[in-house]
Protein backbone atom coordinates (compact mmCIF):
# COMPACT_ATOMS: atom_id res chain seq x y z
CA UNK A 1 0.00 0.00 0.00
CA UNK A 2 1.32 3.42 -0.88
CA UNK A 3 1.89 6.11 1.74
CA UNK A 4 -0.76 8.42 0.24
CA UNK A 5 -3.33 5.64 0.19
CA UNK A 6 -2.57 4.78 3.81
CA UNK A 7 -2.93 8.43 4.87
CA UNK A 8 -6.23 8.75 2.99
CA UNK A 9 -7.68 5.72 4.78
CA UNK A 10 -6.48 6.94 8.18
CA UNK A 11 -7.96 10.41 7.65
CA UNK A 12 -11.36 8.92 6.73
CA UNK A 13 -11.56 6.25 9.42
CA UNK A 14 -13.69 7.34 12.40
CA UNK A 15 -15.30 5.37 15.23
CA UNK A 16 -17.17 8.29 16.83
CA UNK A 17 -18.91 11.49 15.73
CA UNK A 18 -16.29 14.24 15.89
CA UNK A 19 -19.03 16.86 16.35
CA UNK A 20 -19.68 15.41 19.82
CA UNK A 21 -16.04 15.34 20.89
CA UNK A 22 -15.98 18.91 22.21
CA UNK A 23 -18.84 18.22 24.65
CA UNK A 24 -17.23 15.05 26.04
CA UNK A 25 -14.88 14.85 29.03
CA UNK A 26 -13.44 11.64 27.63
CA UNK A 27 -9.96 12.25 26.27
CA UNK A 28 -10.13 8.87 24.52
CA UNK A 29 -13.47 9.79 22.92
CA UNK A 30 -12.44 8.88 19.37
CA UNK A 31 -11.61 5.27 20.26
CA UNK A 32 -14.01 4.75 23.16
CA UNK A 33 -16.70 2.89 21.18
CA UNK A 34 -14.51 0.07 19.78
CA UNK A 35 -12.51 -0.07 23.01
CA UNK A 36 -15.66 -0.58 25.13
CA UNK A 37 -17.01 -3.24 22.75
CA UNK A 38 -13.77 -5.19 22.84
CA UNK A 39 -13.59 -4.98 26.64
CA UNK A 40 -17.16 -6.24 26.99
CA UNK A 41 -16.24 -9.24 24.86
CA UNK A 42 -13.25 -9.89 27.13
CA UNK A 43 -15.60 -9.85 30.13
CA UNK A 44 -17.65 -12.70 28.61
CA UNK A 45 -14.67 -15.07 28.74
CA UNK A 46 -14.72 -17.38 31.82
CA UNK A 47 -12.31 -16.14 34.48
CA UNK A 48 -10.27 -17.89 37.15
CA UNK A 49 -10.82 -17.23 40.89
CA UNK A 50 -7.35 -15.65 41.07
CA UNK A 51 -6.94 -12.20 39.50
CA UNK A 52 -3.88 -10.06 38.90
CA UNK A 53 -4.02 -6.26 38.58
CA UNK A 54 -1.15 -4.21 37.19
CA UNK A 55 -0.17 -1.37 34.87
CA UNK A 56 0.29 -1.99 31.15
CA UNK A 57 1.95 0.44 28.75
CA UNK A 58 0.84 0.86 25.13
CA UNK A 59 3.99 2.12 23.44
CA UNK A 60 3.76 5.62 21.94
CA UNK A 61 6.66 7.94 21.16
CA UNK A 62 4.67 10.77 19.59
CA UNK A 63 4.58 14.26 21.04
CA UNK A 64 0.94 15.24 20.41
CA UNK A 65 -0.74 13.28 23.20
CA UNK A 66 0.06 15.75 25.98
CA UNK A 67 0.05 14.22 29.44
CA UNK A 68 -1.83 11.18 28.16
CA UNK A 69 1.63 9.93 27.31
CA UNK A 70 3.05 8.57 30.56
CA UNK A 71 6.46 7.33 31.68
CA UNK A 72 6.86 4.15 33.76
CA UNK A 73 10.51 3.28 34.38
CA UNK A 74 10.15 -0.44 35.16
CA UNK A 75 8.15 -1.37 32.04
CA UNK A 76 9.58 -2.70 28.74
CA UNK A 77 7.76 0.14 26.93
CA UNK A 78 8.59 3.08 29.16
CA UNK A 79 6.72 5.77 27.19
CA UNK A 80 3.12 5.43 26.08
CA UNK A 81 -0.51 5.28 27.14
CA UNK A 82 -1.07 3.79 30.58
CA UNK A 83 -3.72 1.12 31.13
CA UNK A 84 -4.76 -0.63 34.34
CA UNK A 85 -5.63 -4.24 33.59
CA UNK A 86 -7.21 -7.17 35.44
CA UNK A 87 -6.35 -10.62 34.20
CA UNK A 88 -6.94 -14.22 35.17
CA UNK A 89 -4.01 -16.21 36.49
CA UNK A 90 -3.39 -17.56 32.95
CA UNK A 91 -2.71 -14.05 31.63
CA UNK A 92 -6.01 -13.44 29.79
CA UNK A 93 -7.03 -9.80 30.30
CA UNK A 94 -10.71 -9.32 31.24
CA UNK A 95 -11.04 -5.64 32.08
CA UNK A 96 -9.08 -2.51 31.16
CA UNK A 97 -9.13 1.01 32.57
CA UNK A 98 -7.50 3.68 30.38
CA UNK A 99 -5.72 6.32 32.45
CA UNK A 100 -6.47 9.93 31.52
CA UNK A 101 -5.98 11.91 34.71
CA UNK A 102 -8.99 13.41 36.52
CA UNK A 103 -11.53 12.06 34.01
CA UNK A 104 -10.32 8.45 34.18
CA UNK A 105 -13.39 7.14 36.03
CA UNK A 106 -15.97 9.29 34.24
CA UNK A 107 -15.57 7.37 30.98
CA UNK A 108 -15.11 3.81 32.26
CA UNK A 109 -17.94 1.39 31.44
CA UNK A 110 -18.61 0.80 35.15
CA UNK A 111 -19.21 3.83 37.35
CA UNK A 112 -17.92 4.26 40.90
CA UNK A 113 -20.51 4.76 43.63
CA UNK A 114 -20.44 7.90 45.78
CA UNK A 115 -18.88 5.85 48.59
CA UNK A 116 -16.17 4.57 46.26
CA UNK A 117 -15.48 8.06 44.92
CA UNK A 118 -14.80 9.15 48.52
CA UNK A 119 -11.89 6.69 48.86
CA UNK A 120 -8.83 8.79 49.62
CA UNK A 121 -6.24 6.86 47.60
CA UNK A 122 -6.52 7.27 43.83
CA UNK A 123 -4.64 4.01 43.27
CA UNK A 124 -7.26 2.21 45.39
CA UNK A 125 -9.97 3.59 43.08
CA UNK A 126 -8.22 2.01 40.10
CA UNK A 127 -8.49 -1.39 41.77
CA UNK A 128 -12.12 -0.92 42.87
CA UNK A 129 -13.16 0.18 39.35
CA UNK A 130 -11.96 -3.06 37.75
CA UNK A 131 -12.89 -5.34 40.65
CA UNK A 132 -16.48 -4.16 39.99
CA UNK A 133 -16.68 -6.43 36.95
CA UNK A 134 -15.52 -9.67 38.64
CA UNK A 135 -18.38 -12.16 38.22
CA UNK A 136 -17.97 -13.92 41.58
CA UNK A 137 -15.99 -11.62 43.92
CA UNK A 138 -16.82 -13.60 47.09
CA UNK A 139 -14.91 -16.57 45.73
CA UNK A 140 -12.09 -14.52 44.22
CA UNK A 141 -8.73 -13.13 45.29
CA UNK A 142 -6.91 -10.14 43.79
CA UNK A 143 -3.10 -9.86 43.63
CA UNK A 144 -1.41 -6.50 43.02
CA UNK A 145 1.89 -4.74 43.71
CA UNK A 146 2.83 -1.94 46.09
CA UNK A 147 1.61 0.78 43.71
CA UNK A 148 -1.97 -0.14 44.66
CA UNK A 149 -1.76 -1.81 48.07
CA UNK A 150 -3.05 -0.20 51.27
CA UNK A 151 -4.65 -1.54 54.43
CA UNK A 152 -7.79 0.47 53.64
CA UNK A 153 -8.15 -1.12 50.19
CA UNK A 154 -7.84 -4.67 51.51
CA UNK A 155 -10.48 -4.04 54.20
CA UNK A 156 -12.82 -2.26 51.76
CA UNK A 157 -12.72 -5.09 49.19
CA UNK A 158 -13.40 -7.63 51.90
CA UNK A 159 -16.30 -5.74 53.52
CA UNK A 160 -18.02 -4.52 50.33
CA UNK A 161 -17.31 -7.29 47.84
CA UNK A 162 -16.22 -10.25 49.97
CA UNK A 163 -13.09 -10.26 47.79
CA UNK A 164 -9.70 -11.26 49.23
CA UNK A 165 -6.53 -9.29 48.51
CA UNK A 166 -2.78 -9.94 48.49
CA UNK A 167 -0.14 -7.37 47.62
CA UNK A 168 3.32 -6.10 48.42
CA UNK A 169 3.09 -2.81 50.30
CA UNK A 170 5.00 0.35 51.01
CA UNK A 171 5.88 0.91 54.64
CA UNK A 172 3.64 3.98 54.99
CA UNK A 173 0.51 2.23 53.67
CA UNK A 174 0.01 -0.52 56.23
CA UNK A 175 -0.80 1.61 59.25
CA UNK A 176 1.54 1.20 62.21
CA UNK A 177 1.73 -2.55 62.95
CA UNK A 178 4.13 -3.67 65.70
CA UNK A 179 6.70 -5.09 63.27
CA UNK A 180 10.47 -4.90 63.09
CA UNK A 181 11.26 -1.76 61.09
CA UNK A 182 12.59 -1.93 57.54
CA UNK A 183 15.71 -0.08 58.70
CA UNK A 184 16.39 -2.69 61.39
CA UNK A 185 15.79 -5.60 59.01
CA UNK A 186 18.15 -4.13 56.43
CA UNK A 187 21.08 -4.39 58.83
CA UNK A 188 23.70 -6.98 57.93
CA UNK A 189 23.24 -8.63 61.31
CA UNK A 190 19.71 -9.64 60.30
CA UNK A 191 19.86 -12.90 58.40
CA UNK A 192 17.99 -13.57 55.19
CA UNK A 193 14.76 -15.45 55.86
CA UNK A 194 13.93 -13.39 58.96
CA UNK A 195 10.15 -13.06 59.28
CA UNK A 196 7.98 -10.80 61.40
CA UNK A 197 4.20 -10.61 61.08
CA UNK A 198 1.00 -9.54 62.78
CA UNK A 199 -2.60 -10.49 62.03
CA UNK A 200 -5.86 -8.82 63.07
CA UNK A 201 -9.46 -9.22 61.93
CA UNK A 202 -8.52 -11.52 59.06
CA UNK A 203 -5.81 -9.24 57.63
CA UNK A 204 -2.13 -10.16 57.75
CA UNK A 205 0.84 -7.81 57.49
CA UNK A 206 4.19 -9.58 57.17
CA UNK A 207 7.76 -8.38 56.72
CA UNK A 208 10.35 -10.79 55.35
CA UNK A 209 14.00 -10.34 54.50
CA UNK A 210 15.22 -11.66 51.19
CA UNK A 211 17.97 -9.85 49.26
CA UNK A 212 15.91 -6.81 50.28
CA UNK A 213 13.09 -6.37 52.80
CA UNK A 214 9.59 -7.20 51.53
CA UNK A 215 6.41 -6.00 53.24
CA UNK A 216 3.27 -7.83 52.18
CA UNK A 217 -0.40 -7.49 53.10
CA UNK A 218 -2.89 -10.34 52.76
CA UNK A 219 -6.50 -11.19 53.51
CA UNK A 220 -6.22 -14.46 51.53
CA UNK A 221 -3.06 -16.41 52.41
CA UNK A 222 -1.19 -16.76 55.72
CA UNK A 223 2.45 -17.42 56.58
CA UNK A 224 1.91 -21.15 57.11
CA UNK A 225 2.99 -23.60 55.85
CA UNK A 226 6.54 -22.27 55.79
CA UNK A 227 8.54 -23.24 52.75
CA UNK A 228 12.08 -22.62 51.53
CA UNK A 229 13.71 -20.81 48.62
CA UNK A 230 17.30 -21.07 47.44
CA UNK A 231 19.58 -18.05 47.53
CA UNK A 232 23.30 -17.74 46.81
CA UNK A 233 25.48 -17.49 49.91
CA UNK A 234 28.79 -15.71 49.33
CA UNK A 235 30.44 -17.25 52.39
CA UNK A 236 29.45 -20.81 51.45
CA UNK A 237 29.90 -20.07 47.71
CA UNK A 238 26.76 -21.99 46.86
CA UNK A 239 23.01 -21.72 46.97
CA UNK A 240 21.48 -22.39 50.37
CA UNK A 241 17.82 -22.79 51.42
CA UNK A 242 16.25 -19.99 53.46
CA UNK A 243 12.80 -20.07 55.09
CA UNK A 244 9.99 -18.40 53.11
CA UNK A 245 6.38 -17.86 54.23
CA UNK A 246 3.52 -19.25 52.16
CA UNK A 247 2.11 -15.80 51.39
CA UNK A 248 5.34 -14.78 49.61
CA UNK A 249 5.44 -17.96 47.54
CA UNK A 250 1.78 -17.60 46.54
CA UNK A 251 2.31 -13.95 45.59
CA UNK A 252 5.30 -14.81 43.39
CA UNK A 253 3.36 -17.61 41.68
CA UNK A 254 0.19 -15.62 41.02
CA UNK A 255 1.24 -12.02 40.46
CA UNK A 256 2.91 -12.52 37.06
CA UNK A 257 -0.27 -12.88 34.97
CA UNK A 258 -0.11 -9.35 33.53
CA UNK A 259 3.58 -9.87 32.69
CA UNK A 260 2.57 -13.05 30.84
CA UNK A 261 -0.01 -11.05 28.89
CA UNK A 262 2.62 -8.40 28.08
CA UNK A 263 5.03 -11.06 26.86
CA UNK A 264 2.41 -12.67 24.60
CA UNK A 265 1.46 -9.25 23.18
CA UNK A 266 5.07 -8.43 22.35
CA UNK A 267 5.35 -11.63 20.29
CA UNK A 268 3.36 -9.78 17.62
CA UNK A 269 5.22 -7.05 15.80
CA UNK A 270 2.66 -4.22 15.75
CA UNK A 271 4.82 -1.05 15.41
CA UNK A 272 5.90 -0.58 11.80
CA UNK A 273 7.94 2.26 10.39
CA UNK A 274 6.34 4.04 7.45
CA UNK A 275 8.27 4.20 4.21
CA UNK A 276 8.77 7.52 2.49
CA UNK A 277 7.78 6.34 -0.99
CA UNK A 278 4.46 7.27 -2.60
Could you describe the 3D structure shown?
The protein is of the alpha+beta class and 278 residues long. Helix content is 26%, strand content 26%. Strands 1, 2, 3, 4, 5, 6, 7, 8 and 9 form a 9-stranded mixed beta sheet that branches. A two-stranded antiparallel ribbon has the order 10-11. The termini are close together. The model has no long low-confidence stretch (mean pLDDT 88).
Quickly describe the structure.
The protein has about 280 residues and is of the alpha+beta class. It contains eight helices and eleven strands.
What keyword list fits this structure?
single chain; 278 residues; alpha+beta; 9-stranded mixed β-sheet; two-stranded antiparallel ribbon; 26% helix
Tell me roughly what share of residues is in helical segments: 25-40%
- Whole-number average pLDDT? 88
Q: What structural class do you assign from the helix and strand content?
A: alpha+beta
Largest beta-sheet details? 9 strands, mixed
Assign an overall shape.
globular
Quote the distance from N terminus to C terminus. Answer: 9 Å
C-alpha Rg, in Å? 22 Å
Number of strands: 11
β-sheet strand percentage: 25-35%
* Helix count from the secondary structure assignment: 8
Order of helix and strand elements from N to C terminus: HHEEEEHHEHEHEEEEEHH
Unreliable stretches:
none
Amino acid sequence: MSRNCSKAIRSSLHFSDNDQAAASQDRFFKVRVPFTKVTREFLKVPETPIHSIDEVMVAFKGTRAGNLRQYVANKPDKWGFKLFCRSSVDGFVHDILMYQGETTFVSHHTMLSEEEKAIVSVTSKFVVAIVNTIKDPRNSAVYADNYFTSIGLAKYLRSQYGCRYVGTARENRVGHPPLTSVKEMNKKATQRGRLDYVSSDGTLVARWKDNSVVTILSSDVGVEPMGTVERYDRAAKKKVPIPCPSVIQMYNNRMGAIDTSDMLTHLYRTPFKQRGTT
